[in-house]
Design brief:
Layout: E1 3-7, H1 11-24, E2 27-31, H2 34-44, E3 48-51, H3 60-69, E4 78-82, H4 87-96, E5 101-104, H5 109-121, H6 132-167, E6 171-175, E7 181-184, H7 186-192, H8 196-199, H9 210-221, E8 229-237, E9 243-254, E10 260-269, H10 271-337, H11 342-372, E11 381-383, H12 385-400, E12 404-409, E13 417-419, H13 421-438, E14 443-454, E15 468-477, H14 484-489, H15 507-517, E16 521-526, E17 532-539, E18 562-566, H16 570-582, E19 586-590, H17 593-602, E20 609-613, H18 621-631, E21 636-641, E22 660-662, H19 667-680
Parallel strand pairs: 1-2, 1-3, 3-4, 4-5, 12-14, 18-19, 18-20, 20-21, 21-22
Antiparallel strand pairs: 6-7, 6-10, 8-9, 9-10, 11-13, 14-15, 15-17, 16-17
Helix pairs in contact: 2-3, 4-6, 10-11, 10-16, 11-15, 12-13, 13-15, 17-18
């Protein structure tokens, strides 16, 4: 194949031609203007020169003249490739210059390839003399024709500009370097409401307030180096007393000497746009608040469902683990007595251990569901949030990893919050682990605290928090961020974007539950590739009193007292009764409150302890305790529950000093709680 020299001052044009010719198998060399092309042609002797006509410096016409004048390039075929001249206009020049063909740059690729190959194939037959006089005449005719064409186009453009300016929906002002207007279009006069004669000179400055006018004048006088412009968007009082929203853009026009040639200003009446924006913002705000309310209601519904399911599962797990304990103890006794072979016994005990382990894992999950549903029992006390964060960060540092930079910005004099020490640790664990997973290649995790005073729901983005002082905890990462679809479901239990086996989807749900139970709020802001920011507001405590000491639990052993056991779950009732009976207690069981009162009425011996579920049909545990202790003041009370909902809802209110045992419990836990209740709270 042949070697083609492509000459064009635009690199994009050269690249297009080069790719096309190279694909056909030609070797392409390039030059960006005539002088360079002439040097390359003498050095490389191409088989064809494909050149633009109009170029800075030496143009295609001069290049053809020089190529024809040199002995080593006089016979080199030349093809003009132009965007400014039509082939009919350029052909006379081409013939006089000994150019083989003239092509438009817009020609289709196949035509270009055919012309190139035709010029190369017939290179020994082509006439390549350069007729200087004829070429100059042809060139002058082409230039004159193009000049007339451009003059007509310029006149048409001027007329079009005048028509556009007169009918433009935007006001337009031209002026000098002193800020005086020498042209004002019709629209600007209509916007201001004055005739053009009142707006020439500096009268046009009525479109900006007084304190903006000096900035506008500075733009008009600015030199090229400053590239000055000024924008103003605001309300302006017009001469008729009305107020309109205007958008004014003033741009300086530099001259060739580095000074100012003046300015151009566009003025748009955006009153209807701004009013629509304000209406849209109000509507967006309402939609946002409504969406927050709906999201809160959805989460509240999910939390009630989760709490109810977890409560029922806790009862089932309690019975299952209780019976597993009985079976384990029974098999162990049979092995010790020699009634079951040791190998068989160990196998059975191993199977029972798997059941026990599964039950404990299920218990952990139900506990997280209870936390999400705000149905765990908390013993809150004034807590130093900053200190809790420092302690948690020290413990979490190895888990977060060295590839993540952890920064803290903890506000001084932060008031204490009401929480359990473990609450903040749990919140930070869940949130920092999520942040770590979102920054797998590294990033920055920022934990900040501050004190804020909320004056109402509007100031708190629809969180529903009452007015007051709050401790604000912000956790921000630079990770992957969340899509709107993921963000909308982020707090739902069991929702996770992690692969199977790498997450339960309860981290954020549990965090939400803890914060909700602490009477706080949680807000998530996130977008793909922009990280995630979680903002938490927690009510501050009124004092800094130390938390009350927790009474020491008594060792797990039995007794001979009589216990009235009330629980509507048969499995829990049976396993609890068996544990207590085997420990030496006398147990009276009842399936509900009325039955318990009836049994107590017919039991003439003392009853030392009422062990009651909190939530039962017909009569809740607190009401049962009130009615029983009215007749038997010496009876101690111990409550048990799968969740703490009964402490606060309309089915009963447990006294603050009441003892609550959380289901499911082990034999040791129930015996310890019963013994502690009998010993600690025995009436004097």
């Amino acid at each position: 194949m042949s070697t083609v020299l492509v000459v064009d001052d635009h690199i994009t044009n050269r690249e297009l031609v080069r790719d096309l010719l190279t694909f056909r198998g030609h070797t392409v060399i390039e030059a960006h203007e005539g002088a360079e092309a002439l040097s390359v042609a003498h050095a490389r002797h191409p088989d064809l020169v494909l050149t633009d006509v109009l170029m800075p410096g030496m143009d295609g016409y001069q290049l053809a003249q020089e190529l024809r004048a040199a002995p080593d390039t006089a016979d080199t075929p030349i093809v003009f490739l132009t965007a400014n001249y039509l082939p009919a206009e350029a052909h006379p020049v081409a013939e006089a210059c000994g150019v083989a063909d003239v092509l438009l740059k817009s020609v289709d690729p196949q035509t270009l390839l055919d012309a190139v190959e035709q010029a190369i194939a017939t290179s020994d037959q082509a006439h390549r003399e350069f007729d200087l006089e004829r070429a100059a005449h042809a060139r002058q005719q082409a230039v004159d024709a193009k000049l007339f064409e451009r003059t007509d186009a310029l006149a048409e453009t001027a007329a079009r500009f005048q028509m556009m300016a007169d009918h433009s929906p935007v006001g337009t002002v031209f002026g000098d370097q002193h800020g005086a207007a020498n042209y004002i279009n019709r629209r600007f006069a209509d916007i201001i409401g004055l005739p053009p004669s009142d707006l020439t000179g500096r009268g046009w400055l009525r479109c900006v307030p007084q304190d903006e006018q000096d900035k506008v004048l500075a733009v008009a006088a600015a030199s090229r180096q400053t590239s000055a412009q000024h924008r103003y968007r605001g309300q302006v009082r017009l001469p008729d007393g009305s107020t309109r929203w205007l958008h004014v853009h003033v741009q300086g026009i530099p001259n060739d000497n580095g000074g100012s040639h003046g300015f151009i200003a566009t003025i748009d009446d955006i009153t209807t746009v701004v009013e629509a924006e304000q209406q849209n913002q109000a509507a967006d705000r309402k939609r946002y608040v409504d969406a927050r309310i709906q999201a809160t209601q959805r989460l509240e519904g999910l939390s009630r469902l989760a709490g109810g399911v977890a409560h029922d599962f806790n009862n089932i797990l309690g019975a299952m683990l209780g019976f597993e304990t009985f079976v384990t103890e029974g098999i162990t006794e049979l092995i010790d007595a020699g009634h079951v072979p040791a190998d068989t016994g160990r196998t059975l005990l191993g199977d029972l251990e798997q059941i026990r382990n599964g039950g404990h894992r299920a218990t952990d999950l139900t506990q997280q569901l209870l936390t999400f549903g705000s149905r765990t029992h908390l013993s809150v006390a004034p807590l130093d949030l900053n200190q809790a964060i420092r302690e948690s960060c020290d413990l979490l540092a190895p888990t977060i990893g060295e590839h993540i930079d952890v920064k803290t910005d903890l506000s001084a004099n932060l008031p204490p919050i009401l929480a359990e020490p473990g609450n903040i640790a749990q919140i930070l664990l869940n949130l920092t682990m999520n942040a770590r997973d979102a920054m797998s290649t590294g990033g920055t995790l920022t934990i900040a605290t501050s004190t804020v005073t909320l004056e109402g729901d509007e100031e708190n983005h629809g969180s529903g928090l009452p007015a007051g002082q709050y401790a604000k905890l912000t956790i921000r990462d630079t990770g992957d961020g969340m899509t709107p679809e993921v963000l909308d479901r982020a707090l739902e239990p069991f929702f996770t974007t992690k692969s199977r086996g790498n997450g339960t989807g309860l981290g954020l749900a549990t965090t939400y539950g803890v914060i909700n139970q602490l009477s706080g709020s949680l807000r998530i802001e996130s977008a793909p590739h922009r990280g995630t920011t979680i903002t938490i507001h927690l009510p501050t405590a009124e004092d800094t009193a130390e938390p009350p000491p927790t009474p020491a639990l008594q060792p797990a052993h039995g007794g001979t007292e009589t216990i009235l056991l009330a629980d509507d779950e048969e499995g829990i009732r049976e396993t609890t009764a068996r544990i207590l009976t085997r420990a030496g207690y006398t147990v009276i069981t009842a399936a509900n409150g009325p039955e318990a009162l009836e049994l107590a009425r017919h039991h003439h011996e003392p009853i030392q302890l009422l062990l009651s579920d909190v939530v039962m049909p017909d009569m809740p545990g607190p009401e049962l305790a009130d009615r029983l202790t009215t007749d038997r003041p010496s009876v101690n009370v111990l409550f048990m529950s799968g969740y703490a909902d009964g402490l606060i809802n309309d089915r009963g209110l447990v006294p603050p000093d009441a003892t609550l045992l959380t289901k499911p419990f082990t034999a040791s836990q129930i015996l310890t709680a019963v013994r502690t209740s009998l010993e600690t709270h025995r009436p004097v």
